[in-house]
Amino acid sequence: MPVNKKLIGILCAIGAAVCYGTNPLGALNLYAEGMNTPSVLFYRFGLAWLIVAAVVTVRALCRQENLRVTKREFFTLTALGILFIFSSLTLYLSFRLMPAGVASTILFTYPVMTAAIMTLFFRERLSFATVAAILLSLVGVLLLYWGDADGALSTVGVILVLVSALTYALYIIVVDKSPLAMSSFKINFFVLFYCALGMAAFALFSGQSLMLPPTPRAWLWVGWLAVVPAIMALVMMVYAAKYLGSTPTAILGALEPLTAVLIGIFVFSEPFSLRLLLGIVLILAAVFIIVLRKGGSRE
């Protein structure tokens, strides 16, 4: 793989992780405004879809990119949409059952799930550097988890986060292995549409109403969730998975819980401890191992 594409993949993986790690910032503020979970996600994905649709329209006018897809591409895009619906919904539901920082930390089990799936079903070789990075990041995440938890966690909440992690790992793998020959914006045009539709369906079947954001501040946070952890994270994640591969993209996602912890410290004034510092250092060490690793086969 050319060096420039690998570098782009690394930068996109880091950017996607940081952007996705800001989910609690918008979600918790909107919950404080009285919005329910399907409403938060419906407007997040709906607004994001409108923005992406505008970009795709401009690209179609300038580059003759159209929205036609083959039958195989349709089924792949549908699978991506379903996976992201489950990943987002279960994560946001877990925010109501446990501290968002803890939920974001547990979510980081998805690199291990990604590596395990790639090894079991795609015969991907795990190098020593990859194994070391996974172990370091896991220890770091455990330290963050122990440092944040004040008591027993909700069993349902933990299950929801693990489902979110599994579906997110599968999303990364499908993007990496699928033969989609289209732009990231075109992919997310369909994925975000499925997500908005899925949240409306969930609200209907769960007996909850779709609530309009009640204040200008709420609309501001909806815009944040639509742009930063939705559009920016999804677009960069597609390029990261294509140029870098599933496993290193997932491992560089260590910056996601790190971002959530930093938001907790600087935005919500959560306490900072030696255990927390050690966890952050171990996660950064895992990230540096992946970034500085040279050569080897594409993962």
The helix content, as a percent range, equals over 70%
What percent of residues are in strands?
under 5%
- The helix/strand class is mainly alpha
Question: If helices are DSSP runs of H or I spanning 4 or more residues, what is the number of helices?
Answer: 13
Specify the biggest β-sheet: none
Q: What is the radius of gyration computed over CA atoms, rounded to a whole number of angstroms?
A: 19 Å
User: What is the count of distinct domains?
Assistant: 1
Average predicted local confidence, pLDDT: 85
Which of globular, elongated, flat, extended, rod-shaped describes the shape? Answer: globular
Count of beta strands: 0
Q: What is the string of helix and strand elements?
A: HHHHHHHHHHHHH
Unreliable residue stretches: 294-299
3D structure, described in words:
The N and C termini lie close together (about 10 Å). The protein is an all-alpha fold. The chain has one domain (about 5-290). It has helices at about 5-20, 25-30, 35-65, 70-95, 100-105, 110-120, 130-150, 155-175, 185-205, 215-245, 245-250, 255-265, 275-290. The radius of gyration is 19 Å and the shape is globular.
